[in-house]
Specification:
Layout: H1 2-14, H2 35-44, H3 59-69, H4 94-104, H5 110-115
């Protein structure tokens, strides 16, 4: 569904009929919510226990989570130092750089290009 929505957003930006303030489908980054919307969201989240840790202070739930995590060994137990990426210190080959360069020809950053007009 997101590709179809993105297509409609692209058409709306091209025709200067911007019904949606988001420039990327499925992403609300940079969109300010009104006070009315914030109040509705706040009311909808009251009593929602699936959002544990996001403003939830129920001691009973926190104690259950804490008890379930007791005795568990952490993923990096016994490993020394900071984990490093597999490609750290390696640079791409000349062929790979040429392929990456070719793949970017003719492309523009969509949002910045449209918003400047």
């Amino acid at each position: 569904m997101l590709p179809t929505e993105q297509l409609y957003l692209d058409v709306a930006y091209r025709n200067k009929t911007q019904y949606n303030t988001c420039c990327t489908a499925g992403n609300r980054l940079g969109v300010k919510a009104s006070k009315k919307t914030k109040a509705k969201l706040r009311l909808s989240h009251i009593g929602n226990t699936s959002r544990v840790g996001v403003g939830c202070t129920h001691r009973r739930i926190k104690n259950k989570i804490s008890a379930s995590l007791k005795g568990r060994t952490v993923w990096n137990k016994g490993k020394r130092g900071v984990q490093t990426a597999w490609n750290k210190g390696k640079s791409p080959s000349i062929e790979t750089k040429a392929k990456m360069s070719q793949s970017h020809f003719g492309k523009k950053a969509y949002c910045e290009d449209q918003r400047k007009k």
